[in-house]
Design brief:
heterodimer; A: mainly alpha; two-stranded antiparallel sheet; 2 strands; 70% helix; B: mainly alpha; Leucine-rich Repeat Variant; 33 helices; elongated; nucleus (chain A); XPO2_C (chain A)
């Protein structure tokens, strides 16, 4: 592609087309440009256009296209072709800086970005004259040019702030320092001088202050990795000027905008950052300057207004003070009572005030307000910064600070008392102040965990919080109500129980408040109170203590869900769940109404599930209703089925994916409640549960397996008689699961239930295939998880069908198979089995193999008898072997049991651990001793001789212990 | 600043339980790039003799007059030096020396440009004119004290053999001046250091050390010897080291602070290297003397002694154990709390390398009571020292067993460690995140991961880790994300366990064993 007018013309036309709103015109033009961008001179044509085109829109378009071109193509990737030819690269680097500097701002920004992309690859080695070229422009005196250079430098150097130290990086920085530090310093001084000569020229000042901001940012980048020698030598210049800039004000630079920070604020904010950097990293060298900065910054805070535009500056400045006041050697700067008072009065208190912006959020954006206020996403706010400063000061001055604030709190409360409707914000600030003063450590789960002992939290609670909550109107001063409720919530561990009990009805009452924040806080506070622990692992607040309030609590909770804005309020739903769980059988009288409301809610939200937490707690609440009711009256299960099945059917038919795993869990729970044979309504559903489409979704697998297990537990006989034709389908599910490394344990759960519950004859014909399938997995892709499950299964099988049956079926698949499994799998791996029930199953199963399997006594398997016994004793006595072979280390966490991304397990649908050998064997060690005794009676002399030949001494000792405990001897 | 060579490798090794403690030990890294000002408390590389000059001007005015010092211009100097009048040569050499000895801006470059260095070297050989020899030696000493180019000019003028033979001059002040000049040449770098050693400088130097050598002279000799041990790439020749070592061991027993200091510096250079070099020093049995010296109040002794011991513990487990046996752990607490930040930093660096050792060394570290001062330093120390303390904690949690990590947490390490997540240094942040992850691994083993979560949150660590998920450094943000995903996501799930446990419905009631953080 030549640099010809014709090509320029063509390019102009295509660029113009890329701006066309009609995709039919735009797309082909974009495609065309992409197709020619590999040609030589293409970037140079773009640069020509952005410089010389007659049309401004083409200039801008060319500059954007150029930047994107550079972004896509400049980097040379190893083993890939160089996408820009060398002569173009050289030409670009030679022209881009002057071009950028002479361009209008809009284009300058694009080119500056392009330079930093190129710089990231080429600077410094392949672009050695870039720095000199930039530095030379400092002398131009043209601040449009200078700001262009500074902006580019900033985008080149800002990575020094986050990259790790390396020789390469430091070599570059050193190079930059050598060429750049002195000119930058001179520019800094010159710019400041110009600021005073142009003190009355608003437009000049704006340009100059933009430069100063960039210079201050460059200072930060260049000083970040370590304190450069140059800047140490010139600290006086920089710090003195930074200091005076902090104290500078100029009416001409003040902006009218309340939201957007102006140049002055941005500059001061950056200077605070620079001072904080030095204070943290170069304390030794910075010490002489630090006190001045402390004074300047706090004066700054005292004189800065409440507008949002100052927020960043104020929170940066406060954070600076907070970080300094914690250091022992700067303690003296704050020690003086007057200083402390002034910081408290003029810095902390004003920044804790509830502002118009907060009020707006409280009313119109309550979700955001709650998130900030309750969940602590307030890191950059003024309130938060002020709170941190209080905590910092309390490190050394807890007493004096508490004293000063107590005075403030009292006077603010008095102000409030004079005229509550006008002065309510004073009380809000007072509560916030008490809260920040008193809280030393806090978590979401427990509220405040360490409090300032100098603050009397209970007294404040009784005198100032309760009265607000007791007032007749729940809708008056909603902010103060929310403050009060939050106070109860976070200080619940500090306020005595009797006060909490007094609060409970007040909180219940506030569930009716119109304000979303207020009723949400009330629900959340109740939920938190109900989870507090008392002595003996019971709840602090008991069901008995709640008895008088059950009806009003339930009524108000469900009513709150009908308030505008709260129809899917997760805090309320969680409070419902927690109330059920606390109140237990006292909710039974209300269940008919409760379950109606829950099913209606379920029906409504299933149309468009959007609040996962809400939905989860809703299902938990349903589970609780079922468990609590059926525990008292098992027959009630039918009425739940009646109420729920309609909605469940709809959910399943409409394939509401989010809810299906929950539905299966609730159904499992219901089915497990049945004491007798499985109802026909369930059997009708059985074939559908085996549908492959359901099993394709990972989130369905755990609850579906659980449901099928419930079917097998309650209805194995019915399945064998009425649905025998579905058994292959059931085993098909098992096969599907066993094939997956992620789900094989679920397959074993299912298989274990089949073996345990199905009548033996109904699965007879499939047994051999089952084992063959397992052996194939074992051969081709065994994992530790698989082996563990496999071992549990074969031992369960041995327990159920006898050890001889196990040996026979193995050897019928392949001669000597049984010996091979013993030698290669059971003996070396049994130690890996984890879980109490699982270990017990294995112990009993192996005991059977040892004592009830004749081939173990008189075939070539006999040599394995003692090693197997030794392994069993190891299972009893050795710590679990949790080593995992190397390659499995890298299997993702999703593949390990107990974790399913798309599966949300319901805690209250939980299943008790099932112990299939529970009744048969109580103590497996005694059981082993007794079984050995029995064996030795049958063939006297054999057992002791086998023991004495190869059992190791330690194992023998343990075994003797078992025999003694069982009071048996071996013959 | 030392850096671990391959950080990610370190963690990988840990997770596979096959950690290699040597990989954790951090050598004093070869600092080829330095942004900072040269450190003020390092030993001086080259020294110019200006002291006498002050004496000349302030105290001995009378003497000056007697000597009738005449101010000569540079042209006159050149002329006189190249002339044949010994009197004028002496005057000119003296004038040169005087200019080179003035406190501000000695005209070293101009003197070199005059081309009189060969002449001055020639004067060194005028055995019959001691004053001229002395003045020339002094002038050359001061030229050699300048930049590398200046030293080079002296060496290329042929001064090395001349100075070496002057070591045996019958005039002590000439011999002493030569020692000084040779020290400046040796201090220039490994090239001239080895050039001197090859010219056999060591035997005559060592011969000057005797019980009757005046202290001032002995100081000069010690300093020059120490410069002959200095610098790596390459190390000084082994046989030279072996010749000097016994002398340093003796000198370390001297009562003069400067002599002890420079001997310690020499030992610190000799230990700043591979394990074989460290072993040579360990074998002399000098470690216990170093431990005694590191406990001395004088900074000039404490600094190099600590440096040497710090170097030793970068070595093998056995070498580290030798330092432990010599009692280093008993003196470290004081050093960690020293008022001077660089001492804190070096002590913490030393500790970090001991913490990189096997469990039983970590155990000794605990029993010697080092955890409280380490935590204190992490909390309140200077930033440079805090960074090293972070490494110490990181190594501790990598190599320590579960009980040891629990002990560390009990000592209150979490609060200052989490606070340092606000540090303006990506590497430090990353190391802390890895450390937290190590602590979680330990907590999981004793079933206390959940309590650790609470603790981290209480200490405002959670929000700091959360904030790091937006950090510009990829590795930092990924490490933060991992921690959050692994330990802090789904905060509702544990919460969902029923809070009461009267009946079988609630299985949350299992009491965990006590975990007193």
């Amino acid at each position: 592609m030549e640099l010809s007018d014709a090509n320029l013309q063509t390019l102009t036309e295509y660029l113009k087309k890329t701006l066309d709103p009609d995709p039919a015109i735009r797309r082909p033009a974009e495609k065309f440009l992409e197709s020619v961008e590999g040609s030589q001179n293409y970037p140079l044509l773009l640069l020509t256009l952005l410089e010389k085109s007659q049309e401004n829109v083409i200039k801008v378009c060319a500059s954007v296209t150029f930047k994107n071109y550079i972004k896509r193509n400049w980097r040379i990737v190893e083993d890939e072709p160089n996408k820009i030819c060398e002569s173009d690269r050289i030409a670009i680097k030679a022209n881009i800086v002057p071009l950028m500097l002479s361009s209008p701002e809009q284009i300058q920004k694009q080119l500056s970005d392009a330079i930093s992309i190129i710089g990231r690859e080429d600077f410094p080695q392949k672009w050695p004259d870039l720095l000199t070229e930039m530095v030379n422009r400092f002398q131009s005196g043209d601040f449009h040019v200078i700001n262009g250079v500074l902006r580019t430098a900033h985008s080149l150097f800002k990575r020094y702030r986050h990259e790790f130290k390396s020789n390469e990086l430091w070599t570059e920085i050193k190079l930059v320092l050598d060429a750049f530090a002195l000119p930058l310093t001179n520019l800094f001084k010159a710019t400041i001088e110009l600021c005073s000569t142009h003190a009355n020229d608003a437009s000049a000042l704006k340009v100059l202050f933009s430069s100063l901001i960039l210079i201050a940012k460059l200072f930060y980048s260049l000083n970040f990795q370590d304190l450069p020698e140059f800047f140490e030598d010139n600290m006086e210049t920089w710090m003195t000027n930074f200091h005076s800039l902090l104290t500078l004000d100029n009416k001409l630079l003040q902006t009218d905008d309340e939201e957007e920070a102006g140049l002055l604020e941005l500059l001061k904010s950056q200077i605070c950052d620079n001072a904080a950097l030095y204070a943290q990293k170069y304390d030794e060298e910075f010490q002489p300057y630090l006190p001045r900065f402390v004074t300047a910054i706090w004066n700054l805070l005292v004189t800065t207004g409440q507008e949002v535009k100052y927020d960043l500056l104020v929170s940066n400045a406060i954070q600076f003070l907070a970080s300094v006041c914690e250091r022992p050697h700067y303690k003296h700067l704050f020690e003086d009572q007057n200083t402390l008072t002034s910081i408290c009065e003029k810095v902390i208190v004003p920044n804790m005030e509830f502002r118009a912006a907060d009020e707006e959020a409280f009313e119109d954006n309550s979700e955001e307000y709650i998130r900030r206020d309750l969940e602590g996403s307030d890191i950059d706010t003024r309130r938060r910064a002020a709170c941190d400063l209080v905590r910092g000061l309390c490190k050394f001055f807890e007493g004096p600070v508490t004293g000063i604030f107590s005075g403030y709190v009292n006077s603010m409360l008095q102000e409030y008392a004079k005229n509550p409707s006008v002065n309510w914000k004073h009380k809000d600030a007072a509560i916030y102040l008490v809260t920040s003063l008193a809280s030393k450590a806090q978590t979401q789960k427990h509220g405040i965990t360490q409090a300032n002992e100098l603050v009397n939290l209970t007294e404040f609670f009784v005198n100032h919080i309760q009265p607000d909550l007791k007032s007749a109107s729940v809708n008056e001063f909603p902010v103060l109500k929310a403050d009060g409720i939050k106070y109860i919530m976070i200080f619940r561990n500090q306020v005595p129980k009797e006060q909490l009990l007094v609060s409970v009805p007040l909180l219940i009452n506030h569930l009716q408040a119109e304000s979303i924040v207020v009723h949400t806080y009330a629900a959340h506070a109740l939920e938190r109170l109900f989870t507090m622990r008392g002595t003996n692992n019971t709840t602090l607040i008991t069901a008995a203590e709640m008895a008088p309030f059950v009806e009003v609590l339930l009524t108000n909770l469900f009513k709150a869900l009908t308030l505008p804005g709260s129809s899917e309020n997760e805090y309320i739903m969680k409070a419902i769940m927690r109330s059920f769980s606390l109140l237990q059988e006292s909710i039974i009288p209300y269940i008919p109404s409760v379950i109606t409301q829950l099913t209606q809610k379920l029906l409504a939200v299933s149309k468009n599930p959007s609040k996962p937490h809400f939905n989860h707690y809703m299902f938990e609440s349903i589970c609780l209703s079922i468990r609590i009711t059926c525990k008292a009256n098992p027959d009630a299960v039918g009425s739940f089925e009646e109420a729920l099945f309609m909605v469940f059917t709809e959910i399943l038919q409409n394939d509401v994916q989010e809810f299906i795993p929950y539905v299966f869990q609730v159904m499992s729970l219901l089915l497990e409640m049945h004491k007798n044979e499985i109802p026909s309504s369930y059997m009708a559903l059985f074939p559908h549960l085996l549908q492959p489409v359901l099993w394709e979704r990972t989130g369905n697998i755990p609850p579906l397996v659980r449901l099928l297990q419930a079917y097998l537990e309650r209805g194995a006989n019915t399945i064998a008689s009425a649905a025998a034709d579905k058994i292959p389908g059931l085993l098909g599910v098992f096969q599907k699961l066993i094939a997956s490394k992620a789900n094989d344990h679920q397959g074993f759960y299912l298989l274990n239930s089949i073996i345990e519950h199905m009548p033996p004859e109904s699965v007879d014909q499939y047994r051999k295939q089952i084992f063959i399938l397992l052996f194939q997995r074992l051969q081709n892709s065994k994992t530790t998880k698989f082996i563990k499950s496999f071992l549990v299964f074969i031992n369960l099988y041995g327990i159920k069908y006898g050890a001889l049956a196990l040996q026979e079926i193995f050897d019928s698949i392949q001669p000597k198979m049984f010996g091979m499994v013993l030698e290669k799998i059971i003996i070396p791996e049994i130690q890996k089995v984890s879980g109490q029930v699982e270990k017990k199953i294995c112990a009993v199963g192996i005991t059977k193999i040892l004592t009830e399997c004749p081939p173990m006594m008189d075939t070539e398997y006999t040599k394995l008898w003692t090693p197997l016994l030794q392994a069993l004793i190891g299972l009893f006595e050795l710590p679990e072997d949790d080593t995992i072979p190397d390659e499995e280390h890298f299997i993702d966490i999703e593949d390990t049991p107990g974790y399913q991304t798309a599966f949300s397990q319901l805690a209250f649908a939980g299943k008790k651990e099932h112990d299939p050998v529970g009744q048969m064997v109580n103590n497996p060690r005694i059981h082993l001793a007794q079984s050995l005794h029995k064996l030795s009676t049958a063939c006297p002399g054999r057992v002791p001789s086998m023991l004495s030949t190869s059992l190791n001494a330690e194992a023998l000792q343990y075994l003797q212990g078992y025999l003694q405990a069982a009071s048996v001897t071996l013959l | 600043m030392p850096v671990v060579k391959d950080h990610s490798g370190r963690m990988r090794k840990f997770k596979n339980k096959g950690k290699d403690t040597d990989a954790l030990r951090r050598q004093r890294a070869e600092v080829s790039i330095e942004l900072r000002k040269a450190k003020k408390d390092e030993q001086i590389l080259k020294r110019r003799s200006i002291l006498f000059c002050l004496v000349d001007e302030n105290l001995s005015l009378g003497e000056e007059k007697r000597n009738e010092i005449i101010q000569l211009s540079l042209e006159e100097i050149v002329e006189a030096v190249n002339g044949s009048n010994p009197e004028l040569q002496l005057q000119a050499t003296q004038a040169t020396r005087r200019m080179l000895s003035r406190q501000k801006d000695p005209p070293i470059n101009q003197i070199i440009e005059l081309g009189i260095i060969p002449k001055l070297v020639e004067f060194l050989t005028c055995a019959d004119n001691a004053p001229l020899q002395f003045e020339a030696a002094w002038a050359l000493t001061n030229i050699a004290s300048g930049t590398s180019d200046h030293t080079k000019a002296v060496v290329e003028g042929g001064a090395i053999p001349a100075f070496i033979s002057l070591l045996s001059s019958p005039h002590m002040h000439i011999s002493e001046q030569s020692v000084w000049a040779l020290g400046n040449i040796a201090g220039d770098g490994p090239l001239y250091r080895d050039a001197l050693i090859n010219c056999n400088v060591i035997p005559p130097l060592l011969a000057l050390v005797s019980p009757v050598t005046p202290v001032g002279f002995l100081r000069n000799i010690t300093w020059t010897l120490s410069n002959l041990c200095r610098n790596k790439n390459p190390y000084p020749p082994l046989d030279a080291v072996k010749k000097m070592l016994p002398v340093f061991i003796c000198l370390m027993e001297h009562e003069d602070k400067d002599i002890i200091s420079d001997s310690c510096w020499a030992i610190s250079y000799l230990t700043d290297g591979c394990n074989d070099r460290i072993q040579i020093v360990v074998d002399t049995g000098v470690l216990s003397r170093l431990v005694e010296l590191v406990a001395r109040p004088e900074l000039i002794i404490m600094t190099p002694a600590l440096r040497a011991l710090g170097n030793v513990v970068t070595g093998t487990d056995e070498q580290t154990q030798a330092a432990i046996d010599a009692g280093i752990l008993a003196v470290l607490p004081c050093l960690l709390q020293h008022a001077k930040p660089t001492i804190q930093k070096e002590a913490a660096w030393t500790l970090s390398n001991i913490a990189a050792g096997p469990c039983w060394q970590i155990q000794q570290l605990i029993t010697s009571g080092l955890l409280p001062p380490l935590v204190e330093l992490l909390d309140k120390g200077d930033f440079k020292a805090q960074k090293e303390a972070v490494w110490a904690v990181a190594n501790f949690t990598t190599g320590g067993n579960v009980e040891q990590v629990v002990e560390l947490v009990r000592s209150g390490v979490l609060k200052p460690l989490l606070n340092l997540l606000l540090a303006k240094d990506s590497k430090t942040i990353l190391v802390i995140l890895d450390t937290i992850s190590n602590i979680f691994l330990a907590a999981e083993k004793v079933g206390e991961a959940e309590r650790l979560c609470v603790l981290v949150e209480e200490l405002d660590g959670l929000e700091k880790i959360e904030a790091l998920q937006t950090h510009d450094n990829n590795m930092v943000y990924r490490a933060a994300l991992n921690l959050i995903e692994r330990y802090f996501s789904g905060e509702e799930t544990p919460d969902l366990q029923p809070g009461t446990g009267q009946d079988g419905l609630y299985d949350f009631s299992v009491e965990k064993q006590d975990f007193n953080f």
